[in-house]
Amino acid sequence: MKQTFATLLHSHINACMSLDRVMEGIEKPSYASQGDLAFPCFSLAKVKKKSPHHIALQLAGKIESPLFEKVVANGAYVNVFLNKRVVSERVMKTILKQEETYGSHSFGKRNTVTIDFSSPNIAKPFSMGHLRSTVIGNSLAHIAEKCGYRVIRINHLGDWGTQFGKLIVAYHRWGDESEVRADPIPQLMKLYVKFHEEANEDSSLEEEARQWFKKLEAGNQEAHRLWTWFKEESLQEFTKIYDLLGIHFDCHHGEAFYNDKMNETIDQLAKKGLITQSEGAEVVDLASFNLPPCLIRKSDGATLYATRDLTAAIYRQQKYKFTKALYVVGEEQRLHFQQVFAVLKQMGYEWAANMEHIPFGLILKNGKKMSTRKGKVVLLEDVIDEAFQLAKKMIEEKNPTLRNKLEIAKQVGVGAIIFQDLKNERQNNIEFSFKNMFTFTGATGPYVQYTYARACSVINKANVDSFKPAGLNDTYSWDVIKILLEFPPMIKSACIDNDPSKIAKYVLKLAQAFNKYYTHVQILADDDEQPDRLSLVKSVTIVLKEGLQLLGIQAPKEM
Ligand code: ARG
Questions:
Q1: Of all protein residues, whose CA lies closest to atom 11 belonging to ligand 1?
Q2: Does ligand 1 have an atom closer than 6 angstroms to the CB of 121?
Q3: CA distance linking residue 264 with residue 270, whole number of Å
Q4: Beta strand pairing status for 275-278 and 37-40?
Q5: What distance in angstroms lies between residue 318's CA and the mean position of ligand 1's atoms?
Q6: Could you read off the pLDDT of 18-45 as tens digits, one per residue?
Q7: How far apart, in whole angstroms, are the C-alpha atoms of residue 187 and residue 520?
Q8: Among 97-106, 213-222, 342-351, 483-492, which stretch is predicted with the lowest mean pLDDT?
Q9: Looking at residues 130-155, what average pLDDT do you find?
Q10: What is the Å distance from ligand 1's center to 312 Cα?
Q11: Residue 253, φ and ψ in degrees, nearest 5
Q12: Global confidence as pTM
């Protein structure tokens, strides 16, 4: 609609303004009573040396389209009122034809984006922070695909680093094989916590841990055996969580994968003259970026998190030729990524300009950080299980005869957790509350899922299998139609801003408008407009389902 309006406007003023500028100028009027589209004439007025109202009047008189009911001058603006019947017919036909591809874009075509997300640490519980990364990253992956990108989902597992030296020491001193086998992550976590408690008393432990990590890096058999075992146990736990969330990765190379590739990175840095010595360690000076130096190799020869990220970036560029690389990692690692990107730029890699850290805030419980440290372990699996139990209870109350209760409870429980996260702009902290994520009236996943199921049941009752819309003219349907029209541009903007909350807010708005429609209109009344009303309901189901899918949430047909 906007494009049509812009093209028509442009045909009358093409000497003064490019089509793109006209497109950019078009707004939504402040009030629905002023129409659906508005074009301000201030800059044209300057060029033509006439009053903006005069210009608006002239243009309004010239613009005509079957899509427009009327075009008027309103002060300095040309306002368009869309023709509800014609436009709604078009929108519904488009959605019914395109189905789940409605809202897709092609601007990402022939481009690859790598998304580094989730990336939990081996031998530690999957934290709430990693949950945020997982949920946000997964949604960004869906959104990028919807916009045409080839997406590579990368789980950069934290499977290397000095903590493994600590864990090996702790296991040797206090560990018990059968206990670890029976309940791996909590037991390993306990050992890790105990190490820190004991190391406060006995500082020789830290040195011992460093030695063990060095042995691990040198390929020592015992060190390697334990590391492999801890890693396998952890992966099994993580896989359970990914299965529950319905998430997959294309690449599972953790930090350890880069062990035999880091020397090359360090050689390159040295050849380019970027390495300086600082107290026996090797660093890259980043003063020209106004950043502290990036530590590449410690005085004892051990490599660091940043060394592995540099190596991983070079590897990914070689392997995937990404046009964009996203890192969905908490706010606290901002400096780390600034440094990594800066070092790559110093190395002369132009592609480093296309890397982006996507930070997010904390998950709070009663205003405090939900922590997995200090032995107070909140296991994500338990959190998901609790959500599942609540969803099950809710279904038992509302719809005791439902088939597949367990499967649907899982979809609703997981949907509730994901939605609570994604409805907030990612930079904000979010308050985690089981109570708030399940209300049917609030801004929740179950509310949107329920609306979808409700719409599906209307279609089911009507028992039709073909939809032939001719257009609707009432205000309730128009409110829904206008939102359906916003779906494609909303997705584009969610992709450009890396912001899944736009999708979450959108599905909520659509669900609300639909529920209003459902309450006020007799959808199944037997009259001439029934096919149109059913087409509208069907269109809503298509868009709600696809919107939820982009968030990583499933849409059960019944609940
Ligand atoms: N494992 C890290 C952590 O838990 C996150 C890794 C993020 N990705 C990366 N390429 N650095 O803090």
A1: 309
A2: yes
A3: 10
A4: unpaired
A5: 21
A6: 999 999 999 999 998 999 999 999 999 9
A7: 57
A8: 213-222
A9: 97
A10: 12
A11: -65, 115
A12: 0.93
Mapped onto helix, strand or coil, the DSSP state of residue 358 is strand
Q: Give me the DSSP letters along 528-556.
A: TTHHHHHHHHHHHHHHHHHHHHHHT----
Q: Are 150 and 114 in contact (CB under 8 A)?
A: no
Rounded mean pLDDT, 461-466:
90
369-395 residues labelled b (16+ CB within 10 A) or e (exposed): ebbbeeeebbbbeebbeebbebbbebb
Beta bridge partners, 158, equal: 121
Which of 152, 154, 156, 332 to mutate to test ligand 1, by most ligand atoms within 8 A of the CB atom?
A: 156
The DSSP secondary structure of 372-432, one letter per residue, reads --TT----HHHHHHHHHHHHHHHHHHH-TT-TTHHHHHHHHHHHHHHHHHHTS-TTS-EE-
Task: Provide Rg for the chain, Cα atoms.
Answer: 28
> Do 119 and 130 contact (CB within 8 A), yes or no?
yes
**CA angle at 136 for the pair 444 and 350, rounded to the nearest 5°:** 155
pLDDT at 372 over 60: no
Tell me which amino acid residue 8 is: L
d(CA 110, CA 149): 7
Q: Which of 155, 314, 333, 371 to probe ligand 1 with, by most ligand atoms within 8 A of CB?
A: 333
Residue 270 Cα to ligand 1 midpoint, Å, equals 26
User: In the 3-class helix/strand/coil scheme, how is 145-184 assigned residue by residue?
Assistant: HHCCCEEEEECCCECCCCHHHHHHHHHHHHCCHHHHHHCH
SS3 108: coil
Cα–Cα distance between 541 and 514 in angstroms, integer? 10
Let me know if 449 is exposed, middle or buried by CB neighbors in 10 A (0-12, 13-18, 19+). buried
Q: Which of 70-84, 342-356, 438-452 has the lowest mean pLDDT?
A: 438-452
- What would the pLDDT profile of 248-271 be if each residue is shown by its tens digit? 999 999 999 999 999 999 999 999
